[in-house]
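Memo to structure team: turn this sequence into structure tokens by end of day. - J.P.
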Amino acid sequence: MAAVGGYGDLLRTRHAARLLTGTLVGRLPNATAALAIVLFVRAEGGSFALASALSAVYGAANALGQPLLGRAVDLYGQPRVMLPSAVLAALGMTVFAALGVGALLPAYVAMVVAGFFTPPLEGGLRALWPSVLGDEGRIHAAYSLDAIAQEVIYVVGPLIITGFVAVWSPAGALFVINLLGVLGALAVVTSPPSRKWRSEPREAHWLGALRSRGLLVVLGAFFFIGCALGSIALTAVAYADRHGGDAVSGYLLSAVGVGALIGGTIYGAREWPGSPEQRLRVLVAGLAVCYVPLLLAPGVVLMTVLAGVAGIFLAPSLACAFVVVDRHALRGTVTEAFSWLVTSFGVGASIGTAAAGPAVEHSGVRAGFGVAVGVGFAALLVLVLARRALRAPEAASTIVARSENDRNGAVEPGFSTGVQA
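Reply from structure team:
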């Protein structure tokens, strides 16, 4: 896939920069929630156990809410769902910050509200790209830029929240970051593409987007990739305990992010042969192979380099997965389908973290990285064993179908179409 005219050309397209920036700002509360919750609970005198329990409740509610809100967006449009949900999520965090952890029941309820109502901005942005960019190559390049932006927000987000804590307070940081989240969502839903966008009519079925076999395969693979990242995050902390302290874990995780940025930039800069489904298998194979050197667990400098290598195929795999999800999403379920990808990835990360803990405790750092290697190859195995279900859909891709329908006058410009898998 080619970044036609480069990423700068994409961002100069009308509405593109606004939508990308608004989405990134709108996602800040979710991207920083785990750290912000821990910092606030500790400042309030709560234990790490309480902080982790509240974070887990937030994460579980978020995993449930994303696909359900994504389905609501497909049914009712973006503004009617995303802005109210952003306000409710911010209110949940505001109540949490105002009441503290003295009364546990309200604190847990606030976490449920804040997590569940986090707006599905990621899925919404990917649903909007066809109406904004039009050309298939440019849309594929936008998916690469989207994947790169994900890495940026997870690198920059913690710096923003710690900066707010330093100049104000943990409670103040929660207020400000969630206000920014509402403003970001507002910037998206008031844009013409968001206001015009409608999903195609969908068949009423309780499974919704999950009726697509191709989507289920991608979700299974990215559950394991999420497991890998979660295990690496925890094991990096254990490695740092033995090699110089907390700062080392920051070096390693930042290196993963830098590797992903490099890989995503290279991937989005040219066209690649083969169908997206075939390409996804190759990219995930590269991702799994690049986890293997982590088992060496050498000194800090070389380990930081290996962490960067481990991240190289991450953003390309995500970008390619976005294309595959778009191609296999059932008619009228595109936002829900992308939201399920977010949920699958997030749940996997939580389970990977939980699995790496006992491995490190009983067998050391190499065993923790061994979890990443094992689940990385499990992701590849899912794609290989289920390749028939993930074969290229017989219908044209969403992007091509939309363009053809626009030329035939069947679809109003600015509307997105779905594809039967």
